[in-house]
Amino acid sequence: MKEPVCPLDFRYGRDEMKSIFGERQRLDYLLRLEAALAKAHARVGNIPEESAEEIERKASTRFVSPERVKEIEKQTRHDIISVVRALAEVCEGDAKKYIHLGATSYDIVDTANALQFRDALDIIEKDLEELMLTLVKLAEKYKSTIMPGRTHGQHTIPITFGLKMAVYAMEISRHLERIKESRKRIIVGKMSGAVGTGAAFGEHAREIQEEVKKELGIDMEIASTQIVGRDRYVELATLMANIATSLEKFATEIRNLQRSEIGEVAEAFDVKKQVGSSTMPHKMNPITCEQICGLARVVRALSQVAFDNAIQWHERDLCNSSGERIWIPHCFILLDWILYQMNKVFSNLRVFPEKMRENLERSRGIPMAESVMMLLVKKGMAREDAHEIVRRCAMKAHTQNITLKDSLMEEDEVRNLVTDEELEEALKPENYLGRAEEIVDEVVNLLSRRYK
Q1: Residue 148 to residue 257: CA distance in whole angstroms
Q2: Torsion angle of alpha carbons 8, 288, 327, 219, nearest 10°?
Q3: Going by C-beta distance under 8 Å and a sequence separation of 6 or more, which residues neighbour residue 176?
Q4: Cβ proximity of 371 and 423 under 8 Å
Q5: 351 phi/psi in degrees, rounded to 5
């Protein structure tokens, strides 16, 4: 028995998604197309109905094995003709004469791809919904949990952890919208022959394509070459790369917030059994988020192949075929896997509100500079003047390692305008959250209602 080489065989991926792109299932999709084509021919009167029924009866891996197809392909060096001959071997009577009638290989291949895309996108949609609802729960639970906001890696005015999760939930909801909206362009097949003219189908060419469309429940190209337009595949690859990028962004945030010097959240860790390092016994590393980041980069990198494949010679060359055998299943399997892993991270996330508060206090009130500036403006100071005074005081607080309040109270212009109590109130993070909690409520209500 051959040892597996690809990590998809032994490390990454879930069975449900893998089964869609497995060798036997792929053959079933191809056979289903041959059966649909035969039924279409029978409906327009091109072949006897009993022949179409026999083809449909035998067009299954219960009768046509992947092993037999591969045996034939060793001789023919052509994948689809090997499927056709293997199917013909098991069909009785005249039915074998009508298999693949009028079709080119990529009528079968690309339409089978469309069926796979439909089934695989169903799983991705389900994954996204589950992740989004997990984020919604976190948003609701932590909507009032104050933490430092950060830009450029530096503390800014405060936010809530719930707001951070609400932002992520809305991003996932947009990916769901993109999938739903793009399905009509991605899940498309063809049944129009060698260069898209349908010549071999004869006078019923259009009807045959329409019959196959109805049989399979997917759209068909109105105008094609030998293959479905690869701009559709580019859209699919871009969509998956976009989703993977969001997941890497979320995972990177968890990794950063788990840093020892920040420590505001952390991945779940089984302290009884889990090992963080082969040499440092104390380590509790964000390994799942790191895996997500690494595999998201693979999904994005593989998406480039779809762009290159869209550049074809004339009505078609064969350069797309080998690359699509790799990037399509790998992208789907990896994306499903990292969505599953990301949901697991957020479902079991350890959140440390006390550390968030500690980190806020460590900044000695300096991140509340904007709040103080707005207070001074409210008291009648020009905005630019207020900005300069508070900026100068903040720089002094930084360099002299004092609180922002102490620095501000050394300024006559500030003391003459605001009371000590007013300044204290302006420096409290909980008083400067704006609409954070209201935004979380809005997101929770919107998404909970939309995805019950």
Answers
A1: 11
A2: 110
A3: 125, 128, 129, 132, 451
A4: no
A5: -115, 135
What's the CA angle centered on 9, arms 8 and 14, to 5 degrees? 65
Contact 246, 176 (CB under 8 A): no
Q: Using CA atoms, how far apart are residues 442 and 195, in angstroms rounded to an integer?
A: 52
Contacts of 298 (CB under 8 A, 6+ apart): 330, 334
Domains of the chain: 17-98 (1.10.275.10), 105-139+160-353 (1.20.200.10), 366-426 (1.10.40.30)
Residue 103, token pair as written in the block? 């079709």
**CA distance from start to end of the chain:** 47
* Partners of residue 317 on adjacent β-strands: none
Q: What is the pLDDT of residue 278?
A: 60
Each residue's pLDDT tens digit, 182-214:
999 999 999 999 999 999 999 999 999 999 999
Exposed e or buried b per residue across 39-77, where buried means at least 16 C-beta atoms within 10 angstroms of its C-beta: bbbbbbebbbeebbebbbebbebeebebebbeebbeeee
CB crowding 112-125: b at 16 or more within 10 Å, else e: bbbbbbbbbbebbe
Nearest CA among 202, 159, 66 for reference residue 434: 159
Task: Please identify which residue in the block is written with the tokens 């590393």.
Answer: 285
Q: Which residues, 6 or more positions from 265, have their beta carbon under 8 angstroms from its beta carbon?
A: 161, 254, 257, 258, 349, 350, 351, 352
Which residues are designated catalytic?
Answer: 152, 277
The first and second tokens of residue 443, run together, are 């997101």
pLDDT at residue 70, as a whole number: 96
Q: Where are the beta strands (DSSP E) in 247-406?
A: 265-266, 350-351
Secondary structure E strands in 105-222: 146-151, 154-160, 188-189, 219-220
For residue 292, pLDDT beyond 80: yes
> How far is the C-alpha of 235 from the C-alpha of 237, rounded, in Å?
6
